[in-house]
Amino acid sequence: MTILVGLAAGARGTPPLDLALMLAASTEEDLEIRTIVPTPWPPHLADAEFQSLQESMGRTAQARARAAVEKMAAAGAPVTARFGRSQARSVASGLLDAAQDPSVSSVVLGSSAAVIIGRVALGGIAERVLHSSGLPVWLAPSGYRAAPGSRVQRVTVGFGRADADSDLLASAAALAARSGATLRVACFALSPMTAYAGSIEPQAEDLVVDEWAHQLKPVVDGMLRSARATGRLATTIPVETVVGRGSEWAQVLSDVEWSDGDVLAIGANAHLSGMLLGSHASKIVRHSPVPVLLTPRGAPSA
Q1: In the chain, what is the straight-line distance between the N-terminal and C-terminal CA atoms, in Å?
Q2: Would you place residue 81 in the very low, low, confident or very high pLDDT band (cuts 50, 70, 90)?
Q3: What is the pLDDT of residues 41-76, one digit of tens each?
Q4: pLDDT of 152-168, one tens digit each?
Q5: Cα–Cα distance between 229 and 174 in angstroms, integer?
Q6: Are the CB atoms for 262 and 253 separated by under 8 Å?
Q7: Angle at Cα 151 formed by Cα 154 and Cα 98, nearest 5°?
Q8: What three-state secondary structure class fits 124?
Q9: 185 CB contacts (<8 Å, ≥6 apart)?
Q10: % of the chain with per-residue pLDDT over 90
């Protein structure tokens, strides 16, 4: 299978490329590095100079990508990469065309430039790819860097009640197994400020969260057993369960320990030909300090 990463002509940042290289080294999947050169529409003779500049920036972006692949090989983590450059009316449409290749397993994108460094944000390109493709989408935090030879060390699943009836956990466990990474299931519990203002007893709120955390382990174990029985998961993999708590989403996410090599898997609702993020999922994504995998929730295999 192939991981597709899109580079916009003239883009200076390397977060999506760094993430894609780490994923390819971890999963041993091939990597397609595609530079999308936007073309003006409707075409006009006066646009020739603009088009020439875009082509030049596209070649520069690919040269940087080739150098990054060579650094990976020098670090002892060679990846099989192919390079492509295509013209399209927009970067998003060019990526969606490339994603039609049946060998593509996921798409890697960067975050919006408007977000603070170290956080994830859906930009216009990511929004369109997410809503128009049923493929899993990886999002690199703004300013994300991975040293050559880096690999995925731990896969954390942001697990909610809706995920108990989906194959999110099995997919994340399979990713962890392929990558040689550990698996962690996180329950993110937002406690409303009213609980601390006296109208809701904090102890009652904690009891609800504690009960859900207590029930989480047998649910997770049962889902992993089912995944092995149906062939979705080929091996037994240990799993850690944690709970992040706080009165705001930034605090909830920071309540969980994160390290280099961590990635966070979040389920998205399948919708027509693409995916939609629920309100809680979108808040978790926006406050994640690590790369995020958005994967469509599908029914578990029978």
Answers
A1: 24
A2: very high
A3: 666 655 677 778 878 888 888 888 999 999 999 988
A4: 999 999 987 778 778 88
A5: 13
A6: no
A7: 105
A8: helix
A9: 156, 157, 159, 169, 216, 220, 239, 240, 241, 242
A10: 37
- Cα separation, 144 vs 14, in Å, equals 8
Q: How far is CA 87 from CA 20, 40, 43, 56, 116, in A?
A: 22, 10, 13, 13, 30
Report how far residue 45's alpha carbon sits from residue 106's, in angstroms, rounded to the nearest whole number: 37
Q: Is the dihedral of CA 131, 13, 141, 116 positive or negative?
A: negative
Return the pLDDT at 66: 92
pLDDT more than 70, % of the chain: 86
Task: Give the span between the Cα atoms of 205 and 94, in whole angstroms.
Answer: 48
Q: What are the CA-CA distances from residue 181 to residues 24, 132, 154, 176, 212 (Å)?
A: 14, 30, 5, 5, 26
Where do we find the tokens 């899109």?
A: 6
Q: What distance in Å separates the CA atoms of residue 120 and residue 251, rounded to the nearest whole number?
A: 15
